[in-house]
Amino acid sequence: MSARSNRARAWAIVGGSVLLIGIVAVVVSAITGRTGTPDPTPSSTAGRGPTTTAPATGGVGEFVDANVVKKGWVPEPITTDADTYIRAALAAASTFDSTLSTRDEWLSYLDTWLTPDTRYDESERAADLQAVKVELRQAVVIPQDQWDSLAQENGRVAAKASGDIARQSVPADQTGDMTIGTADVVLTTTSSDGSSGELSYDETIRVSVQVLCGAGSIPTPNSAQQAGDCKIVRYFTEPLEP
């Protein structure tokens, strides 16, 4: 059975296949504005630099590459604590600075957070991981045309998971090492006001991610990560609630 059919059967347990909507629609509306969006708040551009900060790692204090904050990205924590990792993973999927990197560069970086789904046969894992990458590009993160539109305004987005993480087990996972985390994420979108200042506004979305914190995780090459440290299995295109 193919990885795609395996995935469909597994997720039938929790109500059927996940629709390819949700995050991208809300992120796009956060970028382009929508009814009910708070009035933009002007801010100065003086001394502007990368605004992304390294997330707390529950005392671990280590990252795969802390220097990625210079590109406006969230650094991947090295941790076995699922909640800590989930918060960073949820933020990473919506944090970028269009003046410091291209969308392709950002997506290639997000790929390094991924690990194959250990529920599937090893012969199917590579194809399944590739499908996850395609889904990430096509149905999860901001699309290219919206990135380009924001880039014309020197825009950036900083995301942060707020409140509690709702966690649930993963269907067909016999190890207990995988978990799905869902939380509210606050997106702060900042762009040029057309003169010497900036406009910023916040938008809250609800996002889910599946992570693996166990022996089956594959660490990022040439990093301090080890097998067993948390990695992303996939992002979901709409939130999954326990």
Features:
242 residues; single chain; alpha+beta; six-stranded antiparallel β-sheet
Write a structural description.
With 242 residues, the protein is α+β, with helices and mostly antiparallel strands. It is 27% helix and 23% strand. The protein is built from six helices and six strands. Strands 1, 2, 3, 4, 5 and 6 form a six-stranded antiparallel β-sheet that branches. Strand 4 and strand 5 form a beta hairpin. The chain is globular and about 55 Å long. The N terminus is likely disordered.
Provide a short characterization of the protein structure.
This protein has 242 residues and is of the alpha+beta class. The chain contains 6 helices and 6 strands; from the N terminus they run ααβαβαααββββ.
